[in-house]
Amino acid sequence: MRHFNDLAECSSEQIESLLKLAARLDMHPEPKALDGKVLALLFLNPSLRTLASFQAAMIRLGGGAFVISPDMSIHGLETRAGIVMDGQAAEHIKEAVPVIASYGDALGIRAFAPRRSLDEDIADKQYHELAALAGGPVINMESAINHPCQSLADWKTLDDLGVPRNGGKFVLTWAYHPKALPLAVPAATLHMAAMRGMNVVVNRPAGFELPPAIMAKARAAAEKSGGNVTETSDAREATEGAHIIYAKSWSSTRYYGDGPGDLKLREPLLSWCVAESWFDNARRDARFMHCLPVRRGVVVQDHVLDGPRSVVIQEARNRMVVQMAVLHQMLSGKRQ
Amino acid sequence: MRHFNDLAECSSEQIESLLKLAARLDMHPEPKALDGKVLALLFLNPSLRTLASFQAAMIRLGGGAFVISPDMSIHGLETRAGIVMDGQAAEHIKEAVPVIASYGDALGIRAFAPRRSLDEDIADKQYHELAALAGGPVINMESAINHPCQSLADWKTLDDLGVPRNGGKFVLTWAYHPKALPLAVPAATLHMAAMRGMNVVVNRPAGFELPPAIMAKARAAAEKSGGNVTETSDAREATEGAHIIYAKSWSSTRYYGDGPGDLKLREPLLSWCVAESWFDNARRDARFMHCLPVRRGVVVQDHVLDGPRSVVIQEARNRMVVQMAVLHQMLSGKRQ
Amino acid sequence: MRHFNDLAECSSEQIESLLKLAARLDMHPEPKALDGKVLALLFLNPSLRTLASFQAAMIRLGGGAFVISPDMSIHGLETRAGIVMDGQAAEHIKEAVPVIASYGDALGIRAFAPRRSLDEDIADKQYHELAALAGGPVINMESAINHPCQSLADWKTLDDLGVPRNGGKFVLTWAYHPKALPLAVPAATLHMAAMRGMNVVVNRPAGFELPPAIMAKARAAAEKSGGNVTETSDAREATEGAHIIYAKSWSSTRYYGDGPGDLKLREPLLSWCVAESWFDNARRDARFMHCLPVRRGVVVQDHVLDGPRSVVIQEARNRMVVQMAVLHQMLSGKRQ
After folding, report:
1. Which of C202, C209, C250, C270 is the most buried (most CB within 10 A)?
2. Which pLDDT does position A88 carry in this prediction?
3. Is the pTM of this model over 0.90?
């Protein structure tokens, strides 16, 4: 594996192989596998799980990581092409990215959606531009429209829980949040569950439909895997017989990049906060998933998070475990 | 050793064993002892020595550490229970702590006193809540009322200097500082010296008495070790025949959490700045100790810090050395 | 090698040996060479390449690094001697530097010019004071007047490109920049090229002459190596037959430390932006060098940076490669 941009670029055999390797590395550590290997981590946006789990994964395999983020003691980074840099920024990504990449055996990149254009964000334009500058192996640590490390961790969590692939019911539900959040996790999660062969329902209010291109990509994956993908705005219908309720807030797609429009649309939707009652129609052993960070009492009620349905900590720990597998496949036995 | 919360939880045999291990690791490095082991470091408050010395300790033992602090590029952390998170903070410690802990083989926690209630701070309520969330081994990197790593380093420094246990005289003196500082170091230092069997005098102005519970805990330790604990406000009497003058500023306990009250009480106390004259009554070879950081010309005069009595740099270096021992005992040969 | 303060302190045999070791470590990694060794990194000023490349270099050799910078969660650092610390800063460099150094097997220091006195900055007064506090091996990560890691990387880059030592023509040219930048890189670069035996031309506008002491040091190095050093303000003459155009902006020496004076002098110099036309008189295969970060469209035009003449990314990567050699020579086989 040279790059890890998108789970959709992996065959199901590759995913199986990554999941097996992840489980093996978790049971039988290999603290010399990546001796002397370096992971460069470039964060253009904040992080907690990703920041910590990638560093931990590299240490567990005998290598190490360094972190560059714009709020560290570095010169501001300019991203616009062809600009005369007579303002604040003292360095351009055209230099910063290849330089940082040149110190690592692989480069992790986090870059949230610029939100200037929904089409560009769906095409993951910025991420692909940054990745192209790296000149070497890259890992997507959450881009405008993707978060393959989260999706692989979620897949492993579903396997760990024994949730069936074909026949398992996976509800991805929008939830209230005071801010307009990225589409990366919902888009990646939807595709992951579809690719896993599950019966996937997207439950979201009007104006928050996932973009047609994202739905189509998931439907194509479902077709191949024997799963299916539907949409609704009726939580009761959506959760009928569900194995999993996966909550996530995201921005309005009707008012994408339009703050006031989005806010007006979401204001009346405070009731989209997952509570135990949301599980009334689900399987008795249904679980609650969320990628974190999560706002308690806003996205989900405390009693769900603190109760036996929640597997959010396991999901988060699996980030480290699957990333060990990705790094091992990408870097072991290879020279820079 | 599963946790390192408080030196008082260690038997004197355990402390002997840690100090021997520390000396051995300092003389004979074991750069493979913690291969692939990860220390998670969570700083809710600033740090220099702790930040650096724990990272260095892990590297020297072949493992590594990652650091999470609120001023890094993370979402703000909410600490209040049962709150509806519709404000600034995007993540609750109920998720953040177990997640961060799940990436490490142990979790170091720094959390200064909230100063809402002296009783809660003396009970180290916040630290115990955070530690309970970790679900695995934890290390106290300074809490509301404790700093066991500093105390173990100070114990080693006293041993290195040949200061006698029974019969050694240890003066813990309050010193002026423009701000109301935590009780953690004075409380931990007092207990350490008492547990070491020394004759301990606490020298402090009226209104800055250490809380009765802290004094009682130290007296109980002294009883067991053959030491004793007294109090005074007379520096001349306190320092008579002293082996050690250990300076530290702390907040008024009479006006605990009351900024203006504390300030008014400390304002006239500028003369509580340790100078060479403070050693007039002490042993000729008496030493000056301080945990650092220290304000020159405020807590202690330059001529003391720059003179032969000061052992503050050795104390600080011993932080790394004893922490290697703690980490080695906690993590070597064990699986997460 | 105990310290790495200044390339001028190395014999040409030592430099040859470092460059050979660098090339070897790049081809044949030694991921156990510095097992358990720690590099302490103290940044009093911002950094990207240095921050990343030193961490990467230590990991590649099996050790590790920790980073302390004033914008991290540490107490402010006081640098003035004899001051009563009743203000903001809670710690003095007299404690911070030896403590940080005591946790590492070597200490890297970055400290830009205070710009209070040109003579003090030329003498590298602050760096030498900080280095003296360390008490152990130190590495100059850019001081008021020097940047030996950059110079060694540039020397290697010139070797990699096959640029001849004696007879190679090296043009160090001033370039426009909205801010008054340090003299460290131009001074170090000039000396490096002279020490390498090249024909060096410094091209700079009136008022931006490098200080006589810096020119004299370079001339002495050139005398020894068979090179020579000249100055001009005529870019056309300077670049005649050049192998290398090395661009760098620096502050006015006529108005050193005088912001408005410097600004007035540089305002009309916007045309000092390297473009392809600057290579009209140079060798057909002439290369463009810069230490980065570089302002596009200000210091150099995009078409040069994006074209085949630019070797700025190789230069930056060589930072890591030569630093591995410096660290290996300094730390391998040695105990703290």
Report:
1. C202
2. 87
3. yes
